[in-house]
Amino acid sequence: MYIVSKSMKVHNIIAGTREKSSSYYEVKSPYDGQAIGSAPKTSTEEVRKAITQLKLPPMPAWMRADLLESIAIELEKNKGAFASILVAEVAKPYGLAIKEVDACILRLRYAAAEARLLGESAYVSGNCSPDKQGKEAIVIKEPVGVVSIITPFNYPMFLAVAKMAPALAAGNAVVVKSSSLSPLSTLKIAELFAKYFDGSISAVNPLANDGKMLLSSHKSISFVSFTGSTEVGQKISQLAGGKKLLLELGGKGTAFVMEDANIEKAAKEIVKGALTFSGQRCDAIAKVVVQPSRYEELVEKLLREMREYKLGDPAEPMTKVSSLINEEAVKRVHNLVQDALEKGAKLAVGGMFQHNTYHPTLLTEVNESMDITKKEVFGPVISIQVAETEEEMVGIARGSGYGLDSAIFTEDLRKAIALARKLPDGSVTINGHPSHGIGYFSYGGNGLSGLGREGIKRTFEEMLKTKTIILEGP
Prior knowledge:
With 474 residues, the protein is an alpha/beta fold. Helix content is 36%, strand content 22%. β8, α5 and β9 (173-177) form a beta-alpha-beta unit.
């Protein structure tokens, strides 16, 4: 396996050019606290420069498609090196890190295909409306301009690629902000893009609020795409004014287990959905609602399945669960667990931590008075509660205000679809755990979980604007 050099240093990228910042900070591994590199503390003036010096890609769409393909090829050749940055910087188990880089490669290739379809336009005849009779129109698509991309720590490469690639395919320029918790991953992948789209890519890592706010408020920015917490998303919405927004925010993934469910399969899918990358995913399952007749069996199967998830060093091939991103994340997760226990929940397993590693945890006898039923956990914790009827389940689903993902386990497909229609979520998975993957099926949230939809084709279309050219008759 490729080993990340402790001397790795990333820099600002200003309109395609790597530029040193006035100040840097040390980046440490969340798993063992070891220094793994350094990243810029991008100043507010550097952020302004990164925005204002951008130019739209001058090349035609077919050439942009070829360049995206070239990035995919180079990334594939260096897959191990990029994956190892993820292992070191965010404690992503190596197998998952490889999957993230693979997802980047595939997403690039889909974006290249999207660029090749950009030449399609629509012809509209006015003969179907009396006030437009004898007229014709051509409807074309154009780039929106400068796209601001603000990424989280949990998928610092893939989410950057999943936003940059369609933005560039559509002919936009992009400025990317990394999470301060994962700057090496995001700035390194942006550096690769800048080799091919010189002048049209900037990447920064501001720590001060003034610099961060510019990425939503600056007049040169036309579109803001953000993935992260609901609280930050709401602030971005206020700062952006009338700009076009694409926001994927927090979630409270809930699995509904009906009395006719295949419990063996449900347990396996729930645990995978809850513990993958230690639950640090917006589509993670954090809460299970089960009908009473299957409660005890489900608890037993969940505990058995959880024992299969090896805890440890993310660089070890057998590790499935490693550390959370930092000490603050551990405290937040533990406080939610402790609140539930103080209000009557029972601890079936877990509930403890060493350094930044939180042990996979199962809470039983949970009820809606507990904070853990409403707040996003972002940790390897499953809470389980009982509901007698579908009406109760729907009430529980709507209680948190989130509406991103949920899952239903039942052998009755009609029942599943009927329940799915009543849930507030943007996506509902039947007999499986939620997983956005590369976005082949579009996804996005309702309520506190966001605005707009992302995915293959959908993100690309969001990053275009429509122009109608009307031709008068003779």
